[in-house]
Amino acid sequence: MALEKEEMNPFDRVTAALKGEPTDRVPIGWLGRREVGFGLPQVTVADVVREKSGYKLYKGIKAMVERFHPDMIAVMTYTTVEAVAMGTKDKYFADQLPAPIDYAVKSPEDLEKTKIPDPRVDGDLPCLYNAVKKVSNEFSGQVPIGAGTVGPFSVGARIRGLWDISFDIMRRPWFAHDVVKHATEACMNIIEGFREAGATGTSSGAGSETVLGIEHFRQFCVPYERMYHRKAKKLGYLSMSRHICSGPSADLVIDEFPKFGFDNLPILVWGYYKDAQTMQQKKKLFTEYAPAVAVGGTLRASDELFYGTPAQVEAESVKLLDVCSPGGHYFHMADCCIPPTTPLENLDAFVISAKKYRPKA
Q: Which of 50, 58, 177 is nearest to 125 (CA)?
């Protein structure tokens, strides 16, 4: 089926959707991290994320943009890239994202020696920094471009280890605070570099924080996120993408998100929601705190999108759109990282179903 000619450009569509104003169609959000496995033949995921020039990542992003024409680009690779630049050791794979095998901070003395990373030179961050430059040179003015981190608490957990920082929270909270403070400085320095490279939007959020109970989330996540959001605004970022990852407390701590300062920047709160009805409820909640806010996610990237058929993906997308798209403040995107080997036919179904979608009369 041929798609209708679009009446709005991505910038206008994104801005209108965040404000709850009418759009010509539903905005398509981030489609990562499928791009790390796309664009160049005979290239592994490990090849892409470790190449400091960022060329392979840029080529993957370019191929994704030219095939799917999303309404935003997020330049990202893997969720421990900040920690690796600070000393955490990862194992790399051919067809999936790297995973940590040894953490940088085993003692307070280690924390003192852990440097604040420079995204231009440290670890695998240059891949991102240089890819942002290349993507900005090609697509700036055509589509919003973002780059960010997994956020202060998750970076802290990935230099310390989730079990160990959980122990610290209970037995020596002063050290847990020191770790997250250091991680906050790291995150702010990284996004300062990305802003210099050309990113206009930034991001935060990953799974480590959704193991925290509400009180610990308020103590060890909220104040550092507020610092991070304020820094992003000071650096001149125009928007924030805030991820909510699946975890035992995800359904509880998401109600604390407005305390990050939703009035700082237009914000997209996307990721894991229990179901479409829950996401619609949270959309109504968030609009009470922010003049420009949207939600997205729910459809499971590593389940429905990866293992489903195109027909199943389209059917689930339409169900989601029927519930969550009315009234705007909605972006069509998966709940988390799209696996690098996700069938492209499924992504076609996911994107086209949303671009064709028109609300029921």
A: 50
Q: DSSP string spanning 291-309?
A: SSEEEEE-S-IIIIIHHS-
Question: Residue 181 to residues 92, 158, 163, 223, 259: CA-CA distances in angstroms?
Answer: 28, 13, 18, 10, 18
Which pLDDT score is estimated for 252?
Answer: 94
What average pLDDT does the segment 200-214 reach? 95
How many CA atoms within 13 Å lie on the side-chain side of 355? 21
Q: Which residue has the tokens 């040179």?
A: 137
Residues 6+ apart with CB under 8 A from 23: 8, 13, 16, 17, 328
Nearest to residue 71, comparing CAs of 28, 22, 35, 32?
28
DSSP letter, residue 150: S
The pTM (predicted TM-score) of the whole model is 0.95
Cα dihedral 216/293/245/57 (nearest 10):
-130
Token pair belonging to 229? 């959001």
State the Rg of the chain over Cα. Answer: 19
Q: What is the pLDDT of residue 1?
A: 41
- Supply the angle between the helices 173-197 and 125-139 in degrees, to the nearest 10: 40
Q: At what angle do helices 222-235 and 173-197 cross, to 10 degrees?
A: 20
**CATH number assigned to the domain covering 10-356:** 3.20.20.210
SS3 32: coil
For 133-192, the pLDDT digits (tens) are 999 999 999 999 999 999 999 999 999 999 999 999 999 999 999 999 999 999 999 999
Kindly list the domain boundaries of the chain, sorted by start residue.
Answer: 10-356
Provide the residue type at 335 as one letter: D
What DSSP character marks residue 45? H
**Beta strand 89-91 pairing with 239-244:** unpaired
H helices of the chain, in order, are 10-19, 45-50, 55-68, 81-84, 108-113, 125-139, 152-160, 162-171, 173-197, 214-220, 222-235, 250-253, 276-286, 306-307, 310-324, 344-356
